């Protein structure tokens, strides 16, 4: 990108942008990267600048209820180190921050990267997050993660700027930067995880909403008189199509229905009996996807029903937002085309 383009992007004069760029070049954060193309009017071609990937790095942290994933990357998004560790949802945020500090320090030592070279650490959390305040407003599955100044806590421990964002919004930003919607102005993401997440880019800006709850697609009603949702209503998408809802339906079918007694040839019921010792509580969404691929009639019935509900929610989102693209995210989509056909 040229200094002129940066001045327009930053909303400052060309001389101000040039001064900032020159400073960052001197500090080693940016480097000149050859010449761009001249304008139609001719003239001297602009000098392009980019991040110097050998001199500046970022850390990404993606928090899930059971596990947290951390990566150290350069500024061209090349992953230099990956670590997964247990979140320990009942141990409290202070313990989490302490473990994170130890792993970050150990990783930087292993990579021989000075802390001053880290531009920042971004933390995606499974709940409501106020990016501007660096605040985790509420993570229902993590004890003590309510009105939590996580960005300040991490920054104080590590001496590195820290930022907090909702997990689905962070995924959508990743898609925008590196994935399937680089040039789309209006995009919706529907994320089927333990609950249901959703995020939107509208007119090229990440939408957060007035209370940081963004797009509450999980509470779109899709089933009349359906199961009660955590919000108190019945038949919300989250109550019938989240990973937790899928596992619950399989559990009920095996334990209380006819599947465990009459259809013993089914791959999924055999799996529960033989590999999980009859304990359906240990079943994971990965195993449901595997069962679908192995031809389980029960898995197919449950997953394709989910597709019907997701299709209704996607139709509603398209009506509300008129997006260029809808991105579906979540392990359940690993079953492939059969589910997408039902949704469409």
Overview of the structural elements:
The chain has 344 residues and is α+β, with helices and mostly antiparallel strands. Helix content is 39%, strand content 23%. The chain has twelve helices and 14 strands. The chain is globular. The model has no long low-confidence stretch (mean pLDDT 89).
Radius of gyration: 24 Å
What general outline do the C-alpha atoms trace?
globular
Strand line-up across the major sheet:
5-4-3-6-10
| Biggest sheet descriptor | 5 strands, mixed
Give a quick precis of the structure.
With 344 residues, the chain is α+β, with helices and mostly antiparallel strands. The chain is built from twelve helices and 14 strands.
Break the fold down into its secondary structure elements and pairings.
Elements: H1 3-10, H2 14-27, E1 30-35, E2 47-51, E3 57-63, E4 67-74, E5 79-86, H3 93-111, E6 118-125, E7 128-130, E8 135-138, E9 146-148, H4 150-158, E10 162-166, H5 167-178, E11 187-192, E12 196-202, E13 205-207, H6 237-241, H7 243-255, H8 259-262, H9 267-274, H10 285-293, H11 297-321, E14 325-329, H12 337-343
Helix pairs in contact: 1-2, 3-4, 7-11, 10-11, 11-12
